Amino acid sequence: MSIPYVSPQEFSAEILRHLKHSLGKDESHASVYDWRMSLSLALRDHVVDPWFASTRRTYEARGKRVYYLSMEFLIGRLIEDVAVNLGLDAVAEEALSALGQDYAAVVANEPDAALGNGGLGRLAACFMDSLSTLGIPAYGYGIRYEHGLFEQHFEDGAQMETAETWLAQRHAWEFERPEVSYPINFGGHVEEHEGKAVWRAGETVVASAYDTPVVGWQAQWANTLRLWAAKSTTAFDLDSFNRGDYMAASAPEALARTISRVLYPDDTTDTGKELRLKQEYFFTSASIQDLLRRFLSEGGDLRALPDFVAIQLNDTHPAIAGPELVRLLIDEHGFEVSQAITTARSCLAYTNHTLLPEALERWPEDLFIRVLPRHHRIIQLIEAAHIAATGSDIRILEHGEVKMGELAFIMAHHVNGVSALHSELVKETVFADLHSDYPGRIINQTNGITPRRWLYSCNPPLRELINETIGTTWPDDLQQLDGLSVHAKDPAFLDKFQAAKDANKTRLSNWLQARDGVSLNPDAMFDVQIKRIHEYKRQLMNLLETVALWNEIRENPNAGWTPRVKIFGGKAAPGYVVAKQIIHLINDAAKVINADPATREYLQIVYPENYNVSMAEILIPATDLSEQISTAGKEASGTGNMKFALNGAPTIGTLDGANVEIRDCVGAENFFLFGLTAAEVTARRAVPEYARRAVEASPRLARVLQQIEGGVFSSDDKTRYSGLVQGLINHDYFLVTCDFDSYFGTQRDVDKAFADKQAWTRMAALNTARVGWFSSDRTISGYARDIWKTPSLISARGSRQDVA
Ligand code: RUG
């Protein structure tokens, strides 16, 4: 396939056509929203042909399709994604400016589709981009939440949450498919009829499809992201209405819609119990029914299902897919139990994203039986088959709970971790017993990021420099960036590399000034930690180090300090009290430290509220230093770490998650390593009173803790942080105290390194040059090769038919 050329004039006409015919607006009265919608619809038109062609090619090939089941797709804004992949970014900009519109302002009008919490959801979005870029037939299946991740505001430094409303305006990219809908049953009971189980459901809702085409690089291929919305089987109860009971009349619809109303604002614990379990089953069942319908409509024989269907479970959230597929095969298609289990397992694979025990979902068994009685019986059958085959002690149903991690593992032909270290730890810790029951089942697929969004589109100055240095074919072959390595010795190249970074720093500064009225010193080091707020990610350690630095600058103001701006970004789960205290403390400390005339020149703390994908796209290219400081063994992979390195920001980090592999790629001399290793962390936890001892051994840390506990940053409420500080001293599970000195010392190495401008820029450029391996194209190729066995259906890259 090749991309037909469109001139800016033609594209202007297409935008105007949509303005008039789709939006019903006259040019003279069009708002930014109208222009944004018209631009989006004009771009979407160009996606349709590649999308249809891909679908046709898939049907013709009659090969295997990938079904990626994920509770989260953190897609963010789509205009630039689509424009860039269509090769129409420059055309769109010119077309809009010919119409007197500012492209950047129009792009910025699009709300972030925040259908995810963090790394797991963003990974799913990157994977969709790579699946299309690689020409692998695939569907992403998830939930069309009415309200994505909450909006974060600070009130006197404390996090407040409000509902996010991305669907308040029309969503330009999706196609509603009212004809594609499935009943989803809950509750009731199971009856036996002539040896057959019959599920008499207590409640039924309808899953209705909305499709968003996902076009890959150079529009060679487009797959579908199919999101399910919950609707009622009876939209409206007319009898109640006629009786004047308007509430009752709308109740069925309102109740059903609850299921797809809100994304759970939590990516590490299982909360919300019943509703969340219903959400998981809702989208999983709809997806399994949909893929079976597609398979059968093509005349498939269900015994051959695994040759045509590869289902990837993104975390345990869709783990009910195993029992659901078994249920449908037995109850609706007459399979024997063992045949159904074997067939389902041959279709399913599971990605584990965490070792945190609280994040491996477990449902109270009584709740599970109440919501999914038939699946409970099926799980008993699966468990029995597992025990019969292996003699294992591992149970799925245990201590009154349904263990979804064990279920996902047992029902998957492969289980993968998301970085080399994490996959090893999966074998050694959470799934050690199952690993010995099923040797070879656990494999690794280190995460990756799409370079189209995370370099090409978010970092125009660096993109242009790369294009002029190594050519323009790197966006779908990212290891070509290695060609930059030789240039990292060339002072002229380094000057240009630094100029690109400076331009991005200026862009960030202007953006922050306009949005929050905050001024940044562009010569300072921009030291950035952006991610969900969690104790294991250790934003608290970063803050403690900042306070310690503040103390030392005050004591020794003429020591030639490297100016730093410490930038934090991220949301805490609303119910996560400690994480919210950490946010509050960062903001409180910022107020005091930023107001100190003695240190202002050298140290500033900035915490822009409501961190999201679009903010990351501005922050990451402008970053000098990337903070990846989690307790070793706790961050499964991280993907922010890859984005920063790709955009020329060296890392200060622990040997955790993908940091280990990033360091191997960029070279130890281009990475600031500190802290305990995963094995040392485990050993240290066995030492009695390890935190108290660490504090006693570090006068610097002890002083900082005294200041915080004593109310230096909370004069309005001096005891606000005593619980937080005492928690650290008495129960520092994430070893902030133990790693503090090592972190502080390494930060001072960073200061020195940053002072040598050219050496620093070289280090930054080598980071960019050497992290091409972390493209999500490489990750998806790995899944396709090792797990799904799905070939690419595009043979060679077509070229743009440029017409003079
Ligand atoms: O915390 C992990 C990250 O380390 C990882 O990079 C990301 C994608 O694999 O997934 C994150 N994650 C883990 N999000 N939710 C969970 C727990 O279910």
TrEMBL record:
GO terms for molecular function: glycogen phosphorylase activity; pyridoxal phosphate binding. Transmembrane segments: none annotated. Keywords: Allosteric enzyme, Carbohydrate metabolism, Glycosyltransferase, Pyridoxal phosphate, Transferase. Its cofactor is pyridoxal 5'-phosphate. It comes from the Bacteria. One of its GO terms (cellular component) is cytoplasm. It catalyses: [(1->4)-alpha-D-glucosyl](n) + phosphate = [(1->4)-alpha-D-glucosyl](n-1) + alpha-D-glucose 1-phosphate. InterPro entries: Glycg_phsphrylas (IPR011833), Glyco_trans_35 (IPR000811), Pyridoxal_P_attach_site (IPR035090). NCBIfam families: P_ylase (TIGR02093). Allosteric enzyme that catalyzes the rate-limiting step in glycogen catabolism, the phosphorolytic cleavage of glycogen to produce glucose-1-phosphate, and plays a central role in maintaining cellular and organismal glucose homeostasis. This is Alpha-1,4 glucan phosphorylase. It comes from Roseobacter insulae.
